[in-house]
Task: structure prediction
Amino acid sequence: MLVAFSIAPAVADVDGGVAEAVAEAVRVVRQSGLPHETNAMFTNLEGEWDEVMDVVKRAVEAVAARSPRVSLVLKADIRAGHTGQLTAKVQRIDDLPA
Result:
C-alpha cells in the first residue's frame, strides 16, 4: 500500500510556523524503516496496512504532543501483491514515449 499524508498542528509557533512540529512527524517516518519520501506538501510511505497505519498514528501523536489539535490529510493506494510502487509508478510514466 502507498499512503500520501500531511500532518499539521492547529496551533502554530509564535512566528506562525509549523516546521518544528512537522519535523517531529517526519522523524517518526524516517525512523520507521519503511520506504518513504517527503516533499513540501506530503510524505509518501509504502508498506503493509498495519505497519503504514502505525507510522501514521505515531506521527500524529508526535505532532499532538506539541499541539492540542492536529490536522491529518491521508490518501491511500491499496493494491495487493504490489511492492516497490513508490518509485515504480513514476518510472512507468518516465518510460512512456514522449
